[in-house]
Design brief:
heterodimer; A: alpha/beta; Rossmann fold; seven-stranded mixed beta sheet; 13 strands; globular; B: mainly alpha; two-stranded antiparallel sheet; 15 helices; 2% strand
């Protein structure tokens, strides 16, 4: 068997072409309990690179190549995927899993390959002074928590004093991330925070919703992913919880999360970090990628919330690669140059217009100290009648005075545990 | 032709009692050891270490541990994942509280801690057996995972509830953390596997192993001939948990580096190790290795063939991987219910006469 294995890996190595392209590994999950979210994101991520190849001949004249590796949202398989793809000249990793991100932070930093964990992963990685190779722009979980509370403050005339807010979260690193921020915010604004954990994979939430039914909170905030979202929306409908008071974060606000509950899901609100609706780039993807038969999936996800976000992630990676090419003056960049490009990334409205995605995200600039972007997000609401998400607000800013000290505290602890000095001002 | 006793004369009792009495078998064993220590560390790369060899070695330890309890002593346990988590969290607490402690001591102490916990959860085995004991150990699994999720002291109050292994070295060479070289991690695990397998082999064929097997075969008869069930069952739980704890500790410190208790040590892990010993062979040290190899290497091999060589879609390949591994498990269990270890023994018997069978 071992010999077979050697033959298999040897042929694998031989089959991959030489390093004459820009490699963007895609650690996707199209199987398992989280596939509903993983498929559209991965489709969007891959299709955008295909579009770049078809339309522009790659980035700066060098073709892009996406290597897909299935993780099934499992951390051990994520590690295997990372190890098997990093030797192919991988420029940046986008694992779309907080658990895998935690695995990869030390490994990727040691290997000098940047990680882009867009709106997930380790929040305190926004402090680039400690986490030199991890980027979580344009927003992170603590921003999301703060944005939701800011939005609710506005809705309640500036005061949440004495209100009851329940956090329903996936019992993993992902779901636990916002707790610290919400606790601080609860103290600051005087609301009562109740925490209800849902264990992986999230299909059983009967007890949690019984608890919600009993305590009748004013708002339920959800940090869910995969099958957990659909079940939660259905359960909320079952106990007739007012849907407009049920608010998901940006990973709990896609079409497939609400459609199973049908009309009952009407009014459910969720955050989003990118815009919705028709972008000019979708027409190009339709003609150049999907109609040409080059789509990563079946093409049916085009324009959905998570497809758009995957495409947005790919766009940010491609733009960072372009920035890196400009900085270093070479077209064939490596992972270290890619890191420099990510750190110098400057997203402007003019650039987003030029790429055919006007206003897809907020304007932001990355620096050595700040890897987190602005943290702004929008609120959207599900209209079951028209089966579409309606954007309610413009980009709302988080309360940086709350999140920044928490980020500093957590990253300082990590730096102390791992003997990391200042990365931006090495002494 | 191979594995023949003819001409292989023993002149002392010690020679007669050795683990590999047949000369050919013994030389094969030395050759495996020599390749493991003398060749593999020089050619190993990150992929081979992280994706294939280290998980194989670690799961082999876990499978040996469960095999001692289930295969030799007949006590079914579904708490393997939880006991592995005890090892991992003990390592984490020791590594962060005593940064000067070396990794060998940390790993051994994690094993001893797990042995204590295993002893506590082994106590019900004196009153209940079979399915009822399986359910009691299942309770241990869920309780331990819940506890590590719930009590923030275990994960040093980190925001995410994750634990991550800081860099620790042995003789000045990094063993854990991202800067540890592949060959160091491999040799560290290999050393533990070698020593633990040697101990397990000698324990199971000594008096204590015979007591375990007597309890397994018929506990009332064993009690009548003078085996103390309290001592036999509890030592099996302790030794088994010691092994499983070391496997859990290594899985966290050397292999994964960062762990989320629910996904890394969940009930799935308990079943995975149980499948390993059932497929490999209950009551066999070799079976533990064969089962670990089967369950760890086969999925990786299939993935590489289906997506790498045949160019299949990754999602389709993953689904087929489940189908193929499942079908192979059924095939092996139908063809040989006693596992891969028995197939290996049959093969050895055949090879004695080859190429001139009767």
């Amino acid at each position: 068997m071992k010999r077979l294995l050697t033959v298999a890996t040897a042929s694998l190595m031989a089959a991959s072409p030489a390093l004459a392209d820009l490699v963007f590994p895609d650690l996707s999950y199209r199987t398992g309990a989280y596939a509903a979210g993983g498929i559209p994101f991965s489709d969007g991520y891959q299709d955008y690179f295909t579009l770049l190849n078809q339309r522009d001949g790659g980035i700066g004249g060098v073709m892009t190549r996406v290597i897909e590796c299935e993780t099934a949202y499992d951390t051990e398989r994520g590690v295997e995927c990372y190890e098997s793809t990093k030797g192919e000249g991988a420029l940046v990793y986008q694992p779309l899993s907080t658990g895998i991100t935690y695995q990869l932070i030390p490994r990727a930093t040691a290997d000098g390959i940047p990680l882009h964990t867009m709106g997930y992963g380790r929040t305190s990685a926004a402090n680039g002074d400690v986490f030199s190779h991890v980027f979580n722009y344009p927003a992170n979980y603590w921003d999301a928590a703060s944005v939701i509370i800011n939005y609710l403050l506005e809705e309640n005339d500036g005061s949440l004093e004495g209100r009851d807010i329940t956090l329903l979260y996936h019992n993993s690193a992902y779901g636990r991330e916002p707790i610290r921020t919400l606790e601080t915010l609860a103290e600051m604004h005087g609301f009562n925070l109740e925490q209800l954990a849902v264990d992986h994979p999230g299909q059983e939430q009967g007890n949690q919703w019984l608890q919600i039914r009993r305590s009748q909170p004013d708002y339920v905030i959800m940090w869910g992913w995969g099958v957990m979202n659909q079940v939660a929306v259905q359960e909320a409908a079952n106990i007739r919880f007012p849907m407009e008071n049920f608010i998901g974060n940006w990973w709990a606000g896609a079409e497939h999360d609400v459609t199973p509950a049908g009309m009952d899901a009407n009014g459910y609100r969720a955050l989003n970090m990118n815009v919705l609706g028709d972008l000019p780039v979708f027409d190009e993807i339709q003609t150049l990628v999907i109609d040409a038969g080059l789509a990563a999936g079946d093409g049916s996800n085009l324009g959905s919330v998570l497809y758009t976000r995957g495409m947005y992630a790919a766009m940010l990676a491609a733009e960072a690669a372009r920035t890196a090419q400009e900085i270093h003056g070479v077209a064939q960049i490596d992972a270290a140059m890619m890191r420099d490009g990510m750190e110098a990334l400057n997203m402007t409205n003019a650039r987003m217009d030029a790429l055919g995605m006007p206003g897809i995200g907020p304007e932001f600039a990355v620096s050595c100290e700040d890897h987190g972007g602005t943290g702004m997000a929008r609120m959207q609401q599900w209209n079951a009648e028209a089966a579409e998400w309606v954007t309610l607000t413009d980009f709302i800013a988080p309360d940086d005075s709350v999140t920044t000290p928490l980020i500093m505290e957590d990253s300082a602890q990590y730096a102390a545990e791992n003997n990391i000095g200042s990365q931006c001002n090495p002494s | 032709m191979f594995y023949r006793e003819a001409g292989d004369f023993k002149t002392t009792y010690a020679e007669d009692n050795q683990t590999f009495p047949i000369a050919f078998d013994r030389y094969r064993y030395y050759a495996v050891l020599l390749i493991g220590v003398g060749v593999v560390p020089f050619v190993i790369n990150d992929y081979w270490a992280s994706a294939i060899l280290i998980p194989f070695l670690i799961y082999a330890i876990a499978a040996m541990g469960l095999n001692i309890l289930t295969g030799y002593c007949g006590q079914v346990s579904l708490g393997t994942g939880g006991f592995m988590a005890v090892g991992a969290y003990t390592s984490y607490k020791l590594m962060t509280a005593f940064p000067w402690l070396d990794m060998i001591s940390i790993t051994l102490l994690s094993g001893f801690m797990t042995a204590m916990v295993g002893l506590a959860f082994g106590l019900p085995s004196l009153r209940i057996k079979g399915f009822y004991l399986a359910v009691a150990t299942l309770a241990a699994q869920f309780f331990l995972i819940w506890m590590f999720n719930k009590v923030p002291w275990f994960f040093n109050y980190s925001a995410s509830g994750q634990i991550s292994a800081p860099e620790r070295s042995l003789f000045g060479i990094a063993v854990t953390g991202p800067n540890a070289e592949a060959w160091v991690k491999y040799l560290f695990c290999f050393g533990f596997v070698f020593v633990l397998a040697w101990i397990a082999r000698n324990l199971t064929r000594g008096s204590i192993g015979r007591q375990w097997m007597a309890i397994r075969d018929m506990d009332i008869a064993a009690e009548i001939i003078g085996v103390n069930p309290l001592k036999a069952k509890l030592t099996a739980f302790a030794v088994s948990s010691f092994y499983v704890g070391i496997a859990g500790a290594l899985l966290f410190t050397v292999y994964l580096g960062a762990v989320e208790v629910g996904s890394a040590y969940g009930i799935v892990k308990s079943f995975l190790v149980l499948f390993m010993i059932i497929i490999g062979g209950l009551g066999s040290i070799f079976g533990s290795f064969a089962g670990a190899a089967f369950m760890v290497l086969l999925p990786v091999l299939l993935r590489n063939i289906l997506t790498g060589v045949m160019g299949w879609d990754t999602a389709l390949a993953t689904h087929f991987e489940f189908v193929i591994v499942g079908a192979l498990i059924m095939f092996f269990l139908i063809v040989e219910p006693h596992g891969l270890a028995r197939l290996w023994a049959l093969l050895k018997d055949k090879l004695r006469l080859w190429p001139f069978p009767h």
